[in-house]
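Dear support,

Our group has been running a series of protein-ligand predictions, and this particular one with 9Z3 is the one our PI (initials K.S.) wants archived with full inputs and outputs. We had some confusion internally about which version of the output was final, so please treat the block below as the authoritative record. The input we submitted was:
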Amino acid sequence: MAERRISSIDGKLAEEFAIPSHVEDVKEKMADFAMRHTEAGRRVVLITSGGTKVPLESRTVRFLDNFSSGRRGAASAEYFIESGYAVIFLHRHRSLYPYTRMFLTINMLDALQFKVTDGTAGNPSDVVVDQQMLPNIVKVLKQYQEVKEGGLLLPIEFNTLSEYLHLLKAAAQALHPIGSKAMFYLAAAVSDFYIPASEMPEHKIQSSNGPLQLSLNMVPKILSPLVKDWAPQAFVISFKLETDESILLDRACRALDTYRHQAVVANVLDSRRGQVVVVTPETQVELRLTEEEVQKGVEIEERIVSNLTSAHTKFINPVSLHLPET
Ligand code: 9Z3
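Confirmed final output from the archive:
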C-alpha cells in the first residue's frame, strides 16, 4: 500500500511537472560533492531556501508567488559551514545568498570610489571600498573566500515549482550513499497548489475574457518518498509555517506523525526571526532570542543550527545502553 503511494507520487512528478534538462548533471555534481566531503570526514546538509513560483501560463507572463526571502536558508548555510558541514544550497534564483545577504540593501556603487592619489581621483585600476558603507566587509570577504577555496558550498538554483521538486528528488538520491551523514533542512516555502501542465493555457490569459477563476491542484507531498524511499537513512528536518499560533504545534506534530522524519521547526510568520519551536517525536524545544540579543545582532538560525547539529550527532551515534554486569 505504502509502496503504491510512493510510486504514484513519483509517477505524478514525471507526468505533471516538466523535468529540467540539467537535472542529471546536477545530480552527479551533488553526488560527487557529498562523497568528497564524506571521505574528508564532513557531514553534508542539503538546505532548501526561498519561495517557489507557480506559472499560470506555459509561456509565462503571470505566476503565483509567496513571501519567502530566503534569509532563513542563507543564514543557516553560514552557521552549518561554521559547524563543520559541507552545504548544498538549493535556492530560489535571486533569493538571499550566504554571505552576500548582509549587503543586499546597499548600493554597491555608493560604497566604491576611485583611489585619490596626488589630489586627483580617477585611476580606473584603483578602486577602494568605503568600509563604513559595507560593515564587516573584510571579515565576511575572508569567510567567503575560505568557503570558496575549501569548496564547502555547492549552490544549485531553482525557479519554478517543477524545478524545485525534481532537483530535490535528485538531491535526495545523490545523498543516499552517505546514509545518516546527510541532513535535509527543508526551509523553502513551497507552494501547496499548482496548475498541471495539461490544464495550463499556452498563451497569456486575456483580460478581455472577463474575471479569472483559477482551479489549482494539490502539490504531491514529496517529503513522503524522500523519507521512505529516496534517502531513508538521512536526518530529515522540515519546517512548518502558520499565521495562527494556536494551531502551529498541532500541525507540526501531525507532520511528524505522517512522514516519520526526525524533526519539524515550527514558526509563525510574524515572529519567525526571533522565535521557533523544534519539535521531535519526544520533545518540543522553544528557541527564542531576547531583546538584548536581537540588538546585538544574534540570529535565531545560529540557535536552530546548534540544536540540530547536536541532534544529528546523536542520530549518527546513538548511545548504546550499557547494563551493569551482575
Ligand atoms: C519556513 O517555515 C521558513 O522558516 C520560512 C523562512 C519560509 C518562514 P524566510 O525565507 O522565511 O527567511 O523569509 N519554511 C517552510 C514553510 C512551508 O511552506 N512549509 C510547508 C507547510 O508549512 C510544508 S514543508 O505546510
